[in-house]
């Protein structure tokens, strides 16, 4: 399966995906990496592996829809079949969500539906939960509301800070994101209402 990965930052999830492909655990190819931020280290990671790394700044577009139309064009030009959001800090409009219906995945650093949106780890600490984690889900028109594919729990320790909790969650993210993509690649995911059915 050909992936288009959208990023804004460091790109450790992108790296985990590239590593899983190179080790043979994931049957996929990263066709392109697109960032809205030129300085995103994720672009550097892509270049290092010979993957087309594209900076598409929001500046210069009149609307979010126009920006998303440009995204769709680039993704289609690269033959992308599955779009992977890996720390992409922009909300998508129906322009791209409809073009890639149930073919956009996101990873969120909490056990959804708890703590959607920004600063999920801080939200978890502030609330005082004893367990948090991460969620891979298909993207729909809402914010972190789409059908859930895989979740992994992580304990919250007494002395956790946002940094330590984030690190623990990140380790799990790097495990479950390639797994979710592999399930897609094997044609084992189907969406029935809110539920993702994983066939064996
Ligand atoms: C991750 O915590 C992910 O859950 C969130 O953005 C972060 C991206 O991290 N959506 P990285 O750039 O992959 O290291």
UniProtKB/TrEMBL annotation:
One of its GO terms (biological process) is 'de novo' IMP biosynthetic process. Gene3D superfamilies: Formyl transferase, N-terminal domain (3.40.50.170). Pfam families: Formyl_trans_N. One of its GO terms (molecular function) is phosphoribosylglycinamide formyltransferase activity. The record marks 144 as: Raises pKa of active site His. The keyword Transferase applies. InterPro entries: Formyl_transf_N, Formyl_transf_N_sf, GART. Keywords: Purine biosynthesis, Transferase. Residues 2-181 form the Formyl transferase N-terminal domain. Its EC number is 2.1.2.2. N(1)-(5-phospho-beta-D-ribosyl)glycinamide binds at residues 11-13. Pathway: Purine metabolism; IMP biosynthesis via de novo pathway; N(2)-formyl-N(1)-(5-phospho-D-ribosyl)glycinamide from N(1)-(5-phospho-D-ribosyl)glycinamide (10-formyl THF route): step 1/1. The active site is at residue 108. One of its GO terms (cellular component) is cytosol. It catalyses: N(1)-(5-phospho-beta-D-ribosyl)glycinamide + (6R)-10-formyltetrahydrofolate = N(2)-formyl-N(1)-(5-phospho-beta-D-ribosyl)glycinamide + (6S)-5,6,7,8-tetrahydrofolate + H(+). It is an enzyme of class 2 (transferase). (6R)-10-formyltetrahydrofolate binds at residues 64, 89-92, 106. The keyword Kinase does not apply. Belongs to the GART family. Catalyzes the transfer of a formyl group from 10-formyltetrahydrofolate to 5-phospho-ribosyl-glycinamide (GAR), producing 5-phospho-ribosyl-N-formylglycinamide (FGAR) and tetrahydrofolate. This is Phosphoribosylglycinamide formyltransferase.
């Amino acid at each position: 399966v050909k992936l288009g990965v959208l990023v804004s930052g460091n790109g450790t999830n992108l790296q985990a995906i590239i590593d899983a492909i190179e080790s043979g655990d994931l049957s996929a190819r990263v066709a392109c990496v697109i960032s809205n931020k030129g300085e995103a280290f994720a672009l550097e990671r892509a270049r290092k592996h010979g993957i087309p790394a594209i900076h598409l700044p929001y500046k210069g577009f009149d609307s979010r829809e126009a920006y998303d139309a440009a995204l769709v064009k680039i993704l289609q030009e690269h033959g992308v079949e599955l779009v992977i959001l890996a720390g992409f800090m922009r909300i998508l409009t129906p322009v791209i969500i409809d073009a890639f219906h149930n073919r956009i995945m996101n990873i969120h650093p909490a056990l959804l539906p708890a703590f959607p949106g920004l600063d999920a780890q801080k939200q978890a600490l502030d609330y005082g939960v004893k367990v948090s984690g991460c969620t891979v889900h298909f993207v729909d028109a809402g914010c972190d509301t789409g059908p859930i594919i895989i979740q992994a729990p992580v304990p919250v320790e007494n002395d956790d800070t946002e940094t330590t909790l984030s690190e623990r969650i990140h380790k799990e993210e790097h495990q479950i994101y390639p797994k979710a993509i592999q399930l897609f690649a094997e044609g084992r995911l189907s969406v029935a209402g809110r539920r993702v059915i994983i066939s064996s």
